[in-house]
Amino acid sequence: MVKYKEKKRLYDIRYRKRNREKIIKEKKEYYKKNSKKILKHHKKYYLKNKEEINRKNKEYREKNKDRIKKRNKEYREKNKDKIKKHHKKYYQNNKEKINARTKKYHQENREKFTKLNRLWANKNKDKIKKYEQNYKDKRTKEELSEIRNKRYQKNKIKELARQKARHYIKIPKNQLCEDCGIELATERHHEDYSKPLEVDLLCKKCNMKRERKYD
Ligand SMILES: [Zn+2]
Question: What is the CA(187)–ligand 1 centre distance, in A?
């Protein structure tokens, strides 16, 4: 009996080795055909054994940290294009949600990001230079001048509105900030630069807060 069992085991191993491709293919087909059923089953099983599974997974991850890291890295390098494509598709489908979330996160962690950006920029000066050169090389002269012109026009409207407001709107001496009501107002804030004389009188801090909203 023991002999038979051992024989069978060896035979199975050999069989699997020889027919590896075939078995994988069959399995794949089976999964494809029954994916809903299998997923349902997995889900049920997971819900039933949630805590144990999570604990085991955690243990496994902690034990094999380096191995997992290496494997992930290898996978990412091997499937660069695939991953990129997948991310792109996901982004296209969830654009608004993602952008809103990113914006909120940035606003809430602004100081952290400014610091990180500065650090990164200091470390990667050459990279930035190269990127800027590449950006210029890729665009025609007309495109570049149009971009510059747009930026100039935008700044010009801003600057003119500010000048006009500075000239026509005097801030009363004891004027309190319209937002916080605590600090003295020192700045004229435009919600809309096309209406240069419509300003809110704010303290420096609150003005900065408002400007951030429109980044
Ligand atoms: Zn204020």
Answer: 10
